[in-house]
Amino acid sequence: MEQNSGQEAAAAAAAAAAPDPLPQVPPSGSRGLGGIGSAEALAALGAIGRRLLWLLPVYLAGRAGLSLGFVVAGVALYMGWRGRRRGKERSLRMAGLLLSDEEGTVSSAAATDGLGRSLGKSDLPAWVNFHDVEKVEWLNKILAQAWPFFGQYMEKLLVENITPSIRASNSHLQTLTFSKVDMGEKPLKILGVKVHTGMNKKQILLDLTVSYVGDVQIDVEVKKYFCKAGVKGMQLHGMLRVILEPLIGDVPIVGALTVFFIRRPTLDINWTGFTNLLDIPGLSSVSDTMIMDAIASFLVLPNRLLIPLIPDLHDAAELRSPVPRGVVRVHLIQAKDLQSKDKYIKGMIEGKSDPYAVVRVGTQVFTSKIIDEDLNPTWNEMYEFIVHEVPGQELEVELYDKDPDQDDFLGRMKLDFGELLRARMLEEWFPLQDGGRARVHLRLEWLTLMSDPSKLDQVLQRNKTISSKPEPPSAAILVVYLDKAQDLPLKKSSKEPNPVVQLSIQDVTRESRVVYSTASPVWDDAFRFFLQNPAKEDIDIQVKDDNRQTTLGSLTIPLSRLLSADGMTLDQGFQLENSGSNSRIYMKLIMRVLYFDAPEVCSTPRPCPPGHLNVTESTYVGSSVDKSPRPLTASPDAQFGTENVIRIHLLEAENLIAKDNFMGGMIKGKSDPYVKVRLGGQKFRSRVIKEELNPRWSEIYEVIVTDVPGQEVEFDLYDKDVDKDDFLGRCKIPLRRALTCKFVDEWLPLEDVKSGRLHVKLECLSPIPSAAELEQVLMVNSLIQTPKSEELSSALLSVFLDRAAELPLKKGSKPPNPYVSLSVRGTSYKTKVASQTADPVWDESFSFLIKRPHAESLELQVKDDGHVVGMLSLPLSQLLVAEGLFLDRWFPLSNSGPGSQILMRVQLGLLISHHSGVEALNNAAAEENGESSQKGSETELCIREDGDSGSTQELRQRMPHAHSSNSELTDSPLGQLRLTVWYHVDARKLVAIVHSCRNLKSNAKDLPDLYVSLILLPDKSRVSKRKTTLRKKTLNPEFNEKFEWDLPLEEAQRRKLEAYIKNGASFMSRPEPIGKVHLDLSQKDLTQGAAQWYDLKDDKSSS
């Protein structure tokens, strides 16, 4: 104001100092200086006229003989409408200002009065309240850029598609038009995104905090009746969950999008035209509720919007309506200290209330009976709710006082089901928000869905002890996926029917949508039923025409059939009765037993809001417990531990294209080929073979895979060059084929090139929970191991990380934000971050490839903002001696609090190769086990590559001690040597493993220092010779060293192998052989890779 006054004073001074302007002629229609213009006169008359119009209702009421009360009521309605209208406009304006400068508003609030005082918590964006919610400004910029085009699409949709449908639906609406469709300039905003990881590896789950404060304007006109209506401004706020499922191994990677609101969003609409009446108090709440119910009917759980991204999407109904996560049984017991809302004589006499409760989970709503005139009502009612998303879905209980006009609000409580899932059962007094000192007593039970029919009798016996109203407790749940029907009978007029299906169990009936004009309809619907005793109930199915009078077929299925079916599931076509001879209906029926696996009663104190008493009470004697019971074992999902390992053998290629040409192509060169291998997001690259068109790699790669549709093993070949590598071709094998056949051995033609093919082998290894064959696995791996590949895995470790308890608090007694880092050797994973809790729940699983189970450990660290708050080191040798090779329990954490523990399931599975080419190992292992049944100790065996004592590539296994064998010791005066001689067909190499010697004889006074020298005859050159490392001061040396010779199988079978045991103690003289072994390889089956003991002979004796 001061600035404006100053400007006006300056302007006046300037005007006074300026010379007088020339006289001006007044404009037409106005009088001279000091007169009143016609425009001003008309404005004044208009204002007076509007004031007089206020008296018109009074005059009309008098003329009609009505009392003054009608006038007062009309004025009151108008004032209420006007106040409501202005409130909506103010709310839209404030929300728009907040969204337009979100960061500035939050920063300003934080800098002045603090976030909690200047802005309510509900007004703050999600990235302020929750640290694991991420801002996505880049996405908002994309939405802002695309919003005008979205407006064009909506205009086209409303005008070209919606308008004809509305006109055809009713003759009175044939002149309906959308006179204006403007989505405005303010786009939908994403205030934050939270990504849930580790819950299911076959899906991606996102929670989007959406907010739309739009200047949308949509006007509708029905010209026949001169009626106009519309919307000008809208608010929509809520949490939208987006599930990307299923993940496939092909473009577009995601098979479908599933979109829904976990909870009902908040909606506020600013009406125009005839619909202005909806802003009248009373009508406003009714209209908003009706619109919100319409939105909830297809976008709020359990309803989902499925958007397929690929054609022929399988199991669309199961994606749209998946099997529930669980069922929650809510016992509404009683309430206390409710507020009195019934008052008389203007509040001079205080009465009581007539309370009732509304219990809601998403769109599932139950209303209790009304208790007249009682501030401490007792209901003792029970309700059952289907729960799909945990965390996410909430239980809402609202209490009202029943009145003739509008019911008074008494308070509400909310509880996220994630808390109940952890405790399995809660019973306590919950304080009511906005209810003063009022509390409500609830007992909540989490019922697990089990596919074990043997649990049904136990559930039925327990249900008999439960007295519940208004319905008895359920023992099972039935999910029906209605797919399609075929060859339904035609109508009498030979017209195709409009079939609809009615499904009934006892007095509950569900109805599908109508499919018009077809005898082979596809419904793709899902239905759920609670069952009290499935052994005695039937499901009745009626296929009818849409008039509900003509029956096209019927079917009755005893639900007892599901109790004996595999997985309590029937997925088939059913012949319809009272229908055509070929009329069938296709359905999938899934039954699950509702099993309660928690202690009888649990009561957990929770902090009360300020001003409330923190009291925990129970109506049952002895039911108070200080803390919720912790589960004794982890609860992984059904997919845990079902991974397989694909072992990829990259062998060789033939007839590759020559890419290295010289002198402009006049001189043809060769190529330097290598291969890129891709599977399941992992990539491998082979070594480069110089100047070769028929290269041999003989490399092995291992990948952990799950049965996700569409995955492929891809091979790309390139020629290594100085600048850019040249393409030599590609090929691929569907992963499904390897998982089904278990073994694939093929020459694959190279695509996109003129010539060339690639030889590969794929082997699917399924983990076996048995340690009995560990020796065999380690021996096979040692034989097929190639020098150029990594050490092969002998087992798969699966870890399900459930939760932790009693983690230490931060300074200031604040709860931590814990996450877990897990590692085995060089492989590590990290869980999601649990927000502000000392008892986090992660519910995530991980898998590791294990090389040497005896020597490796699982290392686990619980961290908070990078600081370690707990540690655990679990040697995998503990799993080898555990029954079933798994541990499932609470593990104490070191360097943590005194009661800090972590709950997890850790299981090991051996990877047994049945296509390694080592055919005799089973028999050899069996014979060895038979020999070792005598007394003898076990010793640790380490196999080294090519006798390199410094090699890091060791393979450890447990083998019987040499003295435990009874193989003809008396017939070998010089001792014995244990050898394995085998031809590796894939690598085209002769392999020899020198294991050990026993009972050697020596004439020296001191114990000798021994080694073994190998010669591949007839070539005695240095190239064909190998020798082991030195073993000092022993007559029973252990070597366990591996040697290889590159040569074809035909040539290997023409060779002879001599092994000399020599004493290398003296460096002054030539080592003297203690004995030798001579093997004629033409007399041996080199495909049988069994270890054998050979008698030593004198070096001077003939072979």
TrEMBL record:
Coiled-coil ranges from the UniProt annotation: none
Location within or outside the cell: Cell membrane; Endoplasmic reticulum membrane
Domain C2: 309-430, 458-578, 626-748, 778-903, 973-1094
Residue span, SMP-LTD domain: 132-310
Superkingdom of the source species: Eukaryota
Bilayer topology annotation: Peripheral membrane protein; Multi-pass membrane protein
GO molecular function, one term: phosphatidylethanolamine binding
Biased composition (Low complexity): 9-18
A Gene Ontology term for the protein's cellular component: endoplasmic reticulum membrane
Pfam families per record: C2, SMP_LBD
GO biological process: endoplasmic reticulum-plasma membrane tethering; lipid transport
InterPro entries: C2_dom, C2_domain_sf, C2C_KIAA1228, Ext_Synaptotagmin_C2A, Ext_Synaptotagmin_C2B, Extended_Synaptotagmin, SMP_LBD, Synaptotagmin_SMP
Annotated keywords: Acetylation, Calcium, Cell membrane, Endoplasmic reticulum, Lipid transport, Lipid-binding, Membrane, Metal-binding, Phosphoprotein, Repeat, Transmembrane, Transmembrane helix, Transport
Positions of the UniProt region annotated as Disordered: 1-30, 925-970
Regions of compositional bias (Basic and acidic residues) in chain numbering: 937-947
TM helices/strands, residue ranges: 60-81
Family the entry assigns: Belongs to the extended synaptotagmin family.
Subunit structure: Interacts with ESYT2 and ESYT3. Interacts with ADGRD1; inhibiting the G-protein-coupled receptor activity of ADGRD1. Interaction with ADGRD1 is abolished when cytosolic calcium increases, relieving ADGRD1 G-protein-coupled receptor activity. Interacts (phosphorylated form) with SLC2A4.
Free-text function comment from the UniProt entry: Binds calcium (via the C2 domains) and translocates to sites of contact between the endoplasmic reticulum and the cell membrane in response to increased cytosolic calcium levels. Helps tether the endoplasmic reticulum to the cell membrane and promotes the formation of appositions between the endoplasmic reticulum and the cell membrane. Acts as an inhibitor of ADGRD1 G-protein-coupled receptor activity in absence of cytosolic calcium. Binds glycerophospholipids in a barrel-like domain and may play a role in cellular lipid transport.
PANTHER family: EXTENDED SYNAPTOTAGMIN-1 (PTHR45761:SF3), EXTENDED SYNAPTOTAGMIN-LIKE PROTEIN 2, ISOFORM C (PTHR45761)
Full protein name: Extended synaptotagmin-1
Species this protein is from: Eublepharis macularius
